[in-house]
Amino acid sequence: MAEEPVTRIALRGDALLTHPRYNKGTAFTKEERATFGLTGRLPHRVNNLDEQCRRAYDQLETQGNDLAKNTFLQSLRDQNWVLYYALISRNLRELIPIIYTPTEAEAISNYSHLFRRSEGLYLTYPDQNAMEEDFLEQTKGREIDLIVCSDAEAILGIGDQGVGGIGISTAKSAIYTLLAGMHPAKTLSVVLDVGTDNEDLLNDHLYVGWPHKRLRGEDYDAFIDRFIQLIRKHHPHSLLHFEDFGVTNAYRLLEKYRETHAVFNDDVQGTGAVTLATVMAAVGVTKSKLADQRFVIFGTGSAGLGIVRQIRDGITTIDGVDVQTANKQFYLIDKFGLIKESLGDEVRDAGEVTLLEVVKKVKPTVLIGCSTVAGAFTEDVVREMAKGTDKPIILPLSNPSRLHEIKPQDATDWTDGKALLATGSPFPPCKLPNGKEYIIAECNNALIYPGLGFGAMLAKSRILTDRMIIAGTQRLASLSPALKNPEDALLPDFADAPAVNLEVAIAVAEQAIEEGNAGVDWKKEEVRNKAIEKQWKPVYGVYIYDPDGAK
């Protein structure tokens, strides 16, 4: 769609200019200014959206640092949705790190000192008896497709941030809009304020959240359940996205609710899905199968364990291997050495302890790092791995780049240019021994999770199944540039994320229809056109004044 349809609006004057969903600023036409009482409220010249974006970008450039840019963009979002999303869409690679990781982590850590206005829905334990009333106050009469919630226990590598977790919920919601086309009016950002164990926050007299030790046990579970039952009652076809829950709750809540509602945890499933897609692309280059690989995973937090589960699901689903056999392909290592059991499943009963010893014994074909231990993949480890496989698949995924297990150029040099690489943060191309450049794929969740969510929403799926996630993962893997040119990147460029996520969404919705989980009566052949129709684009539509219209 080039433009949004004609919108009938009841707002006039300042009420329209201060409404971020409908405000056009200087883009209001002369006719609209006269109709809506804006002529004297705006300067004479009418600007188009491109001109507004150029002005906003120039203003952004005057900000002294990335945190100031983050604050500026938040202010812009509060004023004009179309301009905010259009500006970022035109500068994805540059501005996503400003509104999301790593800059958003700094904004969240200073949330109480930077607070200016509400960003979403704050549900607090002491006020739980009014939860439904508070929930409906923000959602009544609205069509909600996506709800992003966080209890803020494990925010972006900086840990427990209490009520500041609303920042990660709003950032994730924005990415769904930018990269998948979710309508921002149909998203809801939520923080579940169950206290904090962050002593700095508890001792900060300006902290705006509930100044109490973090809730645990039955009280915590009852509070979460009350929230989820509200969603099931009032928005049964919405997608519920869990974000930055602590490792003890992330898996537990996902497993508890995934059979009764469409729920998704990006830290567990998103990281796992994009890593699986990367491995599938690499396996395509080596012309082997997932079931042929031997995996060493260094780092066993929620990301590492999520990666193991997702790749294991891929092996069992795609290659038809049983779970117990697939388990034997994985060797998990934490800072204390090789783990013999994980997630209640026996992974491997081996005696190796250090990473180097494991590599010598196992001869892995795939080495994945999510440990935040900088330099853990030493020259000895990499050279030893290269002895056991012609094309070592090495994925140092820790964020930020200073915590990567290995620099891509070192991995290239120590394997004589044979390594297939992807990283968790952007890196420049590597020089190969033949003088050519090897583009390093960025194994970024944003290449897949918006599409997974949009696909589930599109199909109005009652649940988000493993096979739906695998379908989206397979679609992403099929878009790998390396499948056409082995010396190209394993994943599409991040600048292509909107088009990539559309393809992921289509695959997910098609799978939902095939499984009989969809709440729509479409045929699979209709999904692509329906997906394109449903996408929201940051463009200005035409307004007609109607006293009974939108407010």
User: Which class best fits the helix and strand makeup?
Assistant: alpha/beta
CATH superfamily of the largest domain: NAD(P)-binding Rossmann-like Domain
Strand percentage: 5-15%
Return the CATH architecture of the largest domain: 3-Layer(aba) Sandwich
Q: What does this molecule look like?
A:
By secondary structure, the chain is an alpha/beta fold. The chain has three domains: 7-100, Hemocyanin, N-terminal domain (Up-down Bundle); 103-261, 3-Layer(aba) Sandwich (Rossmann fold), CATH 3.40.50.10380; 269-533, Rossmann fold, CATH 3.40.50.720. 44% of the residues lie in helices and 11% in strands. It is built from 23 helices and 18 strands. The strands form five sheets. A seven-stranded mixed β-sheet has the order 9-8-7-12-13-14-17, sandwiched between helices. The chain has a five-stranded parallel β-sheet with strand order 2-4-3-5-6. A two-stranded parallel sheet has the order 1-18. α10 packs across α20. Residues 342-352 have low confidence and may be disordered.
Quick structural summary:
By secondary structure, the chain is α/β, with parallel strands linked by helices. It has 23 helices and 18 strands. The longest helix is centred in the middle third of the chain and has 21 residues, at 266-286.
Keywords:
551 residues, Hemocyanin, N-terminal domain, Rossmann fold, 23 helices, globular
How are the SSEs placed, and which strands pair?
Blueprint: E1 7-9, H1 13-17, H2 30-35, H3 49-61, H4 66-79, H5 81-90, H6 92-99, H7 103-109, H8 111-114, E2 121-124, H9 131-139, E3 146-150, H10 166-180, E4 187-193, H11 199-202, H12 217-234, E5 239-242, H13 247-257, E6 263-265, H14 266-286, E7 295-298, H15 302-318, H16 323-327, E8 330-334, E9 337-339, E10 341-342, E11 345-346, H17 355-362, E12 366-369, H18 379-388, E13 393-396, H19 408-414, E14 420-423, E15 430-431, E16 437-438, E17 441-442, H20 449-458, H21 466-478, H22 497-515, H23 527-534, E18 543-545
Parallel strand pairs: 1-18, 2-4, 3-4, 3-5, 5-6, 7-8, 7-12, 12-13, 13-14, 14-17
Antiparallel strand pairs: 8-9, 10-11, 15-16
Helix pairs in contact: 3-5, 4-5, 4-7, 7-10, 10-20, 14-15, 14-21, 17-18, 20-22, 21-22, 22-23
